[in-house]
């Protein structure tokens, strides 16, 4: 009995020596591997930055390289531990197929991310509207696109939804028109109001000289003559011009004695004769 116990102990000891050392080595390699991958990813980013690679492409490639290197590291560690890599890769492939079928949406987002980077409907820094969200493109990842709204909110959009629907890019042409409307009373002088508003937009430092700004009658409302004010500016200065012109326009119209009416109704009472 003692000989059997001794034999089991010796076998257990041999297994611990054989596989224990392999497991410890695998853990060490795993830690070093992740550290080296982190360094490679950072250096890749610096190289692409020096070569002025598009920020969108740079971020996408960094994510892709990071994932591929980690998969290769895990396969190498499996081989070190003693797992048959051929079988492991076959199992991994089968699992990948099953996961792929279960995650068609994720794969669609990946494919859409590649399409976005290939055809470049927008890039990091562009002001766009997508899925009803207006914002500046902050990051483009392999699965999602991140927008930063004027309210400083972060919006995360799946790439498949972005590329599969309409995209409005305000940055492509390098400038954007700011659409604003001012209502004046029917008794006010239209030419004077147009001159006042034109001076406001022409004097604003962020309003472009070309294309020339425009002020004109847009329509006749129920209680006001509506003037369209249309200056051009850079996409980054859109909200600055929008808020400044509205405020300065109201103040200037008040100083000029031009009335900005509020909705009202005139009621005329006729005296009925008995």
What is the total domain count?
Answer: 3
Task: Say how many strands there are.
Answer: 10
* General shape: elongated
CATH-assigned fold name of the largest domain:
Helix Hairpins
Biggest sheet: strands side by side, in what order?
4-3-2-1-5
Termini separation comes to: 130 Å
Low-confidence stretches: none
Content of β-strand: 15-25%
Give the topology string: H per helix, E per strand. HHHHEEEEHEEEHEEEH
Features:
7 helices; SH3 type barrels; Helix Hairpins; five-stranded antiparallel beta sheet; Alpha-Beta Plaits; three-stranded antiparallel beta sheet; 3 domains; alpha+beta; 274 residues
Produce a short descriptive summary.
54% of the residues lie in helices and 17% in strands.
Write the layout of secondary structure elements.
Layout: H1 2-50, H2 55-81, H3 85-102, H4 104-119, E1 127-130, E2 133-140, E3 144-148, E4 154-158, H5 159-163, E5 167-169, E6 176-177, E7 180-184, H6 190-203, E8 214-220, E9 225-230, E10 232-233, H7 238-255
Antiparallel strand pairs: 1-2, 1-5, 2-3, 3-4, 6-10, 7-9, 8-9
Helix pairs in contact: 1-2, 6-7
């Amino acid at each position: 009995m003692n000989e059997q116990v001794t034999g089991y102990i010796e076998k257990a000891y041999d297994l611990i020596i054989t596989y224990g050392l392999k497991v410890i080595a695998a853990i060490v390699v795993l830690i070093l591997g992740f550290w080296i991958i982190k360094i490679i990813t950072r250096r890749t980013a610096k190289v692409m930055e020096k070569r002025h690679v598009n920020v969108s492409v740079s971020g996408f490639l960094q994510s892709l390289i990071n994932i591929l290197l980690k998969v290769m590291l895990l396969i190498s560690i499996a081989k070190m531990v003693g797992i048959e890599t051929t079988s492991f890769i076959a199992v991994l492939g089968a699992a990948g197929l099953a996961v792929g079928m279960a995650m068609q949406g994720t794969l669609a987002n990946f494919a859409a991310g590649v399409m976005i980077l290939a055809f470049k409907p927008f890039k990091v820094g562009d002001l766009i509207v997508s899925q009803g969200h207006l914002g500046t493109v902050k990051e483009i990842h392999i699965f999602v696109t991140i927008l930063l709204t004027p309210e400083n909110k972060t919006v995360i959009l799946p790439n498949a939804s972005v590329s599969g629907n309409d995209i409005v890019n305000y940055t492509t042409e390098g400038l954007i028109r700011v659409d604003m409307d001012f209502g004046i009373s029917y008794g006010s002088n239209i030419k004077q109001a147009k001159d006042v508003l034109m001076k406001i937009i022409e004097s604003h430092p962020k309003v472009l000289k070309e294309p020339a700004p425009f002020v004109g009658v847009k329509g006749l409302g129920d209680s006001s003559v509506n003037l369209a004010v249309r200056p051009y500016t850079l996409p980054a200065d859109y909200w600055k011009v929008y808020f400044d012109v509205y405020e300065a326009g109201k103040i200037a119209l008040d100083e000029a004695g031009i009335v900005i009416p509020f909705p009202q109704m005139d009621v005329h009472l006729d005296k009925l004769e008995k």
